[in-house]
Amino acid sequence: MADHSSTAPGTAHSADHGHDDGRRDFLLLSTLAVGAVGAGLAAWPFIDTMNPSKDVLALATTEVDLSPISEGQSITVIWRGKPVFVRRRTKAEITEAKKTLGEKDPEADDKRTKKPEWLVVIGICTHLGCIPLGQKTGDPKGDYNGWFCPCHGSAYDTSGRIRKGPAPTNLAVPPYEFTGDTTIRIG
Amino acid sequence: MATQFKNPVVRWIDHRLPIFTFMEHSAVSYPTPKNLSYWWNFGSLAGIILVIMIATGVFLAMQYTPHTAMAFDSVERIMRDVNYGWLLRYLHMNGASMFFIVIYIHMFRGMYYGSYKEPREILWIIGVLIFLAMMATAFVGYTLPWGQMSFWGATVITNLFSVVPVVGTVIVEWLWGGFSVDNPTLNRFFALHYLLPFVIFALVFLHLWALHTHKSNNPLGIDVKGDKDEIPFHPYYTIKDSFGLGVFLIVYLGFTFFAPNFFGEPDNYIPADPLVTPAHIVPEWYFLPFYAMLRAVPDNFIDVFGILPIIISAKAAGVVVMFGSIILLIFLPWLDSSKVRSSQFRPVFKWAFWLFLLDCIVLGYVGGQPAEGAMLTIGRLCTFWYFFHLLVVVPFLGKYEKTRPLPESISAAVTAKESK
Ligand code: HEM
Ligand code: FES
């Protein structure tokens, strides 16, 4: 609005033009500023309705009972709509995991676990979001005996670290806690 | 003529698509009668509410589920779990009431100042169409929360169509998509509730197009006679409209925050139950005058008109009266043949106008009361007067009323007032 240059008849108050121009500009600009701040504040409730609601947040944690899982076995649980891999690792797998930091996204195994026996990672390939294979007996586990992503061939090791293929980072570790000897709460 | 803009980007675009010229002509330099009163604020207010309704509605629709088993709960979820969901819903609910208040004032303003007269007939007719579309939108919208009033309101109103001779039942079942108001009905009502506001938006565009062709009427009702009678829309009416908007928002938000259910019916917080009708069904307040007319037609109406019963039953007559009361407004420009627009110069019409307004308010009151005893009688008298006013009083005054002399021009009238 401010950038049109045509002066319509009647806008020019020749008598008081000039000496109160500054006052008028001040009033106009402060009105616009208050209006803009008001509109911005009013926009927030609209935007916020699209954020996760209370009922969604209430389902944002998942309790997992670990007792039925035997050594060498994995289960998949759902947390916030995503698969989480929980693997009870064998002695051999633990030793293998501790031998290296991995090369693409180096990280020590004990940084990625709370108890060496239990590995908990989000089961989503960090390349483009496919679900890697390796949970079921008979699934290909890739060259590093962890998981293998069939989409573009990423291979993860027994600590869920990326070792080969296009994926850039290790399988993510979700926030979780041991709430008992054999129960965890994810989220 | 294209406006010369300083900003080169604006100029570049405007040369190819003169949208900035269009905006400049219609909201900045737009010549406006210089004597518009606050009654001229309600058009722009209505436009702003339409935008608020669409904005809150679209965000509500992201959370709402149009299914009989889930609709009520999804609205409760909006109220309790969705961030600021309560705010959006209360804005939408009270926005509907505000919309009707503003539109009613806007329409009565038009009647008082004769804004429907030549050359603004089409402008007026489009306005009546907008009003009809608003009623349809509000009606289907009220069904969505799927409370008791939603369900029974929808049942009663859709059943009105059963009065159509021969094919009545076919039409009603077609409206329902079944044999009662049920899931298919709710689903299509949601689709229509999403669609109709955009139809209204398009109608508003035509309304403004017609308005800008002959410009605003004014409290004196006389034509603008040149530059002296006009001022540019900006800053004079932009600031006046903004001020009016501020006052309006205080009222609107006052209800939204402090009395959000003032206009609502408590029964609508009971989930819909197809087996139990609430003791006292009332439509939303903005439909009450029409509801009163619907119920006003007596059963023995038929006898009075002798041969009519063959084609029309009392139930049908009520429906015809109700829809007729709105359709009649379309013909107002031709029912009123007086060349003088403003009631300021029509001493008798002015009183007829206030009586008509009072009549509509009483009809609204009666519509909210049980249809029995004195209420029924008053409702009948008022319904009679509604039609008598439009069909007899208005044409009669148009012909025989002695109007007062009109001022020479707007600026002459303003100067005369100031020198007093
Ligand atoms: C002309 C503008 C509109 C009017 C007059 C209107 C009117 C209404 C009314 C009276 C209700 C019932 C309120 C209640 O008791 O809860 C309602 C509900 C609803 N409306 Fe609208 N509406 C409009 C525009 C829109 C638009 C554009 C949308 C979506 C795109 C929308 C989406 C909804 C939804 C999802 C509900 C159900 C949630 C609720 O009950 O609050 N509305 N509308
Ligand atoms: S998504 Fe897993 S390798 Fe591409």
CATH homologous group name of the largest domain in chain A: Rieske [2Fe-2S] iron-sulphur domain
Total number of helices of chain A? 4
- Identify the CATH homologous superfamily of the largest domain in chain B: Cytochrome Bc1 Complex, Chain C
Low-confidence stretches of chain A: 1-15
CATH class membership of the largest domain in chain B: Mainly Alpha
Reported for the largest beta sheet of chain B, the result is: 2 strands, antiparallel
Distance between the termini of chain B: 41 Å
Q: Fraction of residues of chain B in helices? A: 55-70%
Mean pLDDT figure of chain B? 93
Q: Can you count the beta strands of chain B?
A: 2
Order of helices and strands of chain A: HHEEEHHEEEEEE
Q: Helicity of chain A, in percent?
A: 25-40%
Describe this structure in words.
The complex is a heterodimer of chains A (187) and B (420). Chain A has helices spanning 21-49, 54-58, 91-99, 109-112; strands spanning 62-65, 74-79, 82-88, 118-122, 145-148, 155-157, 162-164, 176-178, 183-186. Chain A is α+β, with helices and mostly antiparallel strands. The model of chain A is unreliable at 1-15 (pLDDT under 50). Chain B has a two-stranded antiparallel ribbon with strand order 1-2. Chain B is built from 17 helices and two strands. Chain B has helices spanning 8-16, 19-27, 42-61, 71-80, 85-112, 121-143, 148-159, 168-176, 183-214, 233-258, 288-296, 301-304, 314-330, 332-335, 347-367, 373-400, 410-419; strands at residues 31-33, 230-232. Chain B has two domains: 36-109 and 137-203 and 231-283, Cytochrome Bc1 Complex, Chain C, CATH 1.20.810; 285-420, no CATH class. By secondary structure, chain B is an all-alpha fold. Chain B starts with 7 loop residues before the first helix and ends with a helix. Chains A and B meet through helix 1 and helix 2 of A and helix 3, helix 5, strand 2 and helix 10 of B. Bound molecules: protoporphyrin IX containing FE (HEM) and FE2/S2 (inorganic) cluster.
